[in-house]
Amino acid sequence: MTIDRRTLLGSSALALLASTLPGRGAARSTGDAPNLLIGTGGDGHTYPGPTLPFGMVQLGPDTDVERWATCSGYHHGDGSIMGFSHTHLSGTGIGDMLDVMVMPGTGPVQLEPGPLSDPDAGYRQRFSDERAEPGLYRVALESGVRAELTVTERTGWHRYTFPKGAGHVLLDLSHLIGDAPGAAPLIDEVSVAIDGDGTITGGRRVFRWAKGRRIHFALQASRRPDRVSFFGDGDVAQPAGTRQVAGKRLKMVLHWDDAGATPIVLRCAISGVDVAGARANLASEAKGWNFDAVARAARATWAKALGAVHVTGGSADQRAILATALYHAQLAPTLFSDVDGRYAGLDGHIHTVPPGGAAYSSWSLWDTYRALHPLLTLIDPARTKSLIDDLIRQTTQSRYGPLVWPLQGKETGTMIGWHGVVPLAEAQAKGVPADYAAAWPAIAKRSFDFTAPDRNNSHGRELYDRLGYVPADAVDESVSRTQEYAYDDWASSHIARAAGASEAADRLLRRSGNWKNVIDTGTGFARPRFADGSWWSPYDPIQLDHTSQYRDYTEANGWQATFLNQHDIYGRIAQGGGDAAFAAKLDALFSAPSTLPANAPPDISGLVGQYAHGNEPDQHAAYLYAYVGQPWKTQRLVRRLCTEMYRNDPDGIIGNDDCGQMSAWFVFSALGFYPVDPVEAAYVFGSPLFERAVVRLGEKRLVIEAPGNRADTPYVAAVAWNGAPWSKSWIDHRTLAGGGTLRFTMSATPNPRFGEARADRPPSFGHPA
Length: 769
What we know:
There is one protein chain. The protein is globular. It is built from 18 helices and 36 strands. Strand 10 and strand 11 (200-206) form a beta hairpin. It starts with a helix and ends in a 22-residue tail after the last strand. Helix 4 (316-328) crosses helix 17, helix 6 crosses helix 7 and helix 8 crosses helix 11 (478-498). It is of the alpha+beta class.
């Protein structure tokens, strides 16, 4: 066999993934392997269970459902496990999912989990020897059961090795975030049945975050149970011989008299369409009972995905953080179409994707348009094509047009703006082929038809259009809304022009300047403005709201919102008094006292001065120094953020990971560049963290070199592209994506001349500096 470089890298990545992580209490990876416990502590809200890249099934352990800290169902440091459910959200600030939970046990059957504070009170169990790696999770439960989990795209696989004697598996279909005993029911329909061949099927409808979403499943066991028990609402035992039951809080128990004789394997498929879809998914992806073969395939899939970036240099911790960030950046959006292509659309109907296509869920677009989607556009153009095609289809199907935060066929309308237009405009600007014109009618309706239905995310559209801003005495979060609506106008103008709607494109382009109308030039801050044109006074940029009724910013305050503009940076610089004044304002942002009002949400975290790295609104701010000819300040700050805000520990992510956005920021910044405005199709240089990185760009590759790079060399003295000097403080997507070698000369001292000239500064708003 001929061994080429690609084969060598793939084999090395697979070998890395074969190593396991230390057990609980030593939650750090060894060497360069991903540490799946990063983000499971603090407020990272990630989970350690197995999935495939962008997989439908995201299987894993649940430790609690009653705290904000457990939005994902899991929190490192919780001492007991409730069970293993098949769907999770990674890094979000709102909890949902946790569908089809199973829990193995021995001894008397318990039907309630009991509180986290008393693991002896219910079916939850203490655990030890927890190990997590991409595609595989295993843990030892106090009952003596060894639990192992792996996955295909649409099926979850469990292998339970029981101690000698009897044992059982509980299927709890009442389990979900925030549905504690005594709470108002969030599930209104549940059914479960067992067929003559032993296949268990069922489903439920859930009204938590994604109101009314449905999930269906088909589950099989490698050994037929000796008997089954059904429990209806109120945990009422059903008569012997019962084969199906319906209600709102259902449970089922599978009993084996000699569970310890051989390991019991469960394989469970899910579907957002119907039980038939779940059965078909199971038949397609669960052939045979070879758990180890499925785990090997999952490892190999992740080895390929994680092989997109290979780094040398830096510390072992930094390499582990990079590998983990790359892992977390490939969890969402999640697959939502069945093997036959069917999926539940946002219009309430069942649709079928074209051959080779896919539908997706878990679009955290307010977060992920900033860095996650640009990262995927760079390292996985084929996946990006699939995602963009789906965005276009679902935009046409949703009664709200551009996607906001859809979850399993339901548009939640969470956050503000209609940022589903941004990945479309970004992909179009970067040459991803797609039928962008098909999305334009729905985008036009959201942009100009003020009678169209709104969710919370788009309130105040008519006022925004008529007054040029969203007034603070009429609509909540008005300052952030004005600026984010303006950014969506900027993105939408590109789609309009691609669709041949020139007049609409011009109108959107003009309206994208509305951000200016909430920047008070007198104070230099983004400030609440009332319908009569007056400003909130007396103004304090630390505060979040001008009355208890109206919050003025979205997960931000006046300091952070002042730098929210991503698309017209030179307009913002001019409005702020020019280069020197804007640089001084940036200096003040990063050096102001890190104080927040008592009513600040926990999302505003990771403060450096008033800059909040743990939340999205100003995550590009450190890169803005390049636009005033001071990129050395960007370099210093980015290196600091990479080393202070990310650690190889469970609480190693500052703030929620937000479906991979925080992780994607790290991947970009560790490589040495960042997409301040994704639609501009350009990357601003920062400070690379490693001595060398090889990035797979589809069929091409990018090599990033920073020889001799150390912790005390954060500054860029010079840059070369393919051996030729490169004086600019940025590089365009077309050049970078074409492949080549980007070489940074690093230094312990800044080079104020690099990137200082106006001609070397990044473009913005479609124009050079």
